[in-house]
Amino acid sequence: MSRDYLGNLASPVETAEIKKDERNMATEGPAVRRVQVAEHPRLLKLKEMFNSKFGSVPKFYVRAPGRVNIIGEHIDYCGYSVLPMAIEQDMLIAVEPVKTHVLQLANTNPLYPDFSTSANNIQIDKTKPLWPNYFLCGFKGIQEHFGLSDLTGMNCLVDGNIPPSSGLSSSSALVCCAGLVTLTVLGMNLSKVELAEICTKSEHYIGTEGGGMDQSISFLAEEGTAKLIEFSPLRATDVKLPSGAVFVIANSCVEMNKAATSHFNIRVMECRLAAKLLAKHKCLPWEEVLRLEEVQAKLEVSLEEMLLITEDTLHSEPYSPEEICRCLGISLQELKTQILSPNTQDGNLGLKDHDLREQDGEAAQYR
DSSP secondary structure string, 60-105? Predict the structure, then answer.
């Protein structure tokens, strides 16, 4: 009988010892818990579906939660801190390592078709944000981190109850879950902070340029507390929720797949361009700058001072691509290939007038 239930969010059955260990997040890995599958209806159902699909039983289970953000929208990719909390909805994967080099993925949701590929030839198509690609992001991130070239295969059955494309980070939860699956199959060890950083980077393979909030809270969350997530270096601080407080999370049922459009990345690129223009104006090495927080740190100024610098430096009218190039002393081709993300390089999507002052001001005010 399968016994292991691996998780990186505090579960209803958690010991005091685990809670104590998880405070040292820079070095501690995800918690491992042993439960009886028969006592958990969802695990039992997943085990039965796994048996029906693959003709065997899973060796272990891995889960990663979704999240809701409380304070700090669209500023993690600017380098600024955020305040999310994990939710009960999660991604749960039943796993069986196999002796072949084939990676077989299936989903309990019939809307998501089965997928198989060689574990040693991972190809991720950025133009098609299909569900297996998010698993492949996590898989590839661990593979590349350890520099491995001869990986074992595995059978995986995914069960998710996070509403897709709803703003609750179902895709990032799948990336994180896949990274933890791969780490476990390989018998390797990483801290939760390292896993969060790897999965943040590897989700870029799908084409989105997120800043790391989603992956960080998925790995670093604890029951009964939100987390102040700070970056460079990544660290998390408990923010206890008020006693008796209730958060109502309502689904508008309007879906937004970040990887399917350029809308998300356009906002990221606008903030990046604002950071580079500010750095150039202040005679900083702007080529190295990617985030607004980096400019503030290099200038050694307060957030209030940074906001004044922004208002004095950037004009309120939208910037054209040509003006950005003149300010930075680069060509339009260099702007496209060296600064913009692939899905914002198209003239109909990315190379339009950018309201950089507004984006920078919003980031500062949220911070």
Answer: EEEEEEEEEEEE-TT-GGGT--BEEEEEEEEEEEEEEEESSSEEEE
List residues bridging with 90 in a β-sheet: 65
Smallest CA-to-CA distance from 137 within 68, 77, 207 is with: 207
Q: Say how many C-beta atoms besides its own lie within 10 A of residue 260's C-beta.
A: 16
In this structure, are 161 and 299 located in the same domain? no
pLDDT at 257: 67
CB of 352 closer than 8 Å to CB of 262: no
Q: How far apart are CA 165 and CA 205, in angstroms?
A: 18
| Same-domain status, 50 and 175 | yes
Q: What is the pLDDT of residues 280-299, one digit of tens each?
A: 999 999 999 999 999 999 99
Catalytic residue among 214, 238, 346, 360: 214
Active site residue 214: yes
Contact between 171 and 158 (Cβ < 8 Å): no
Q: Among 137-146, 159-168, 182-191, 259-268, which is the least confidently predicted range? A: 259-268
Dump the DSSP string for 147-212. T--S--EEEEEEEE-SPTTSSS-HHHHHHHHHHHHHHHHHT----HHHHHHHHHHHGGGGT----S
Residue 104's CB is within 10 A of a number of other CB atoms, namely: 19
Domain interval for residue 16:
4-65+87-207
The pLDDT tens digits for 214-242 are 999 999 999 889 999 999 999 999 999 88
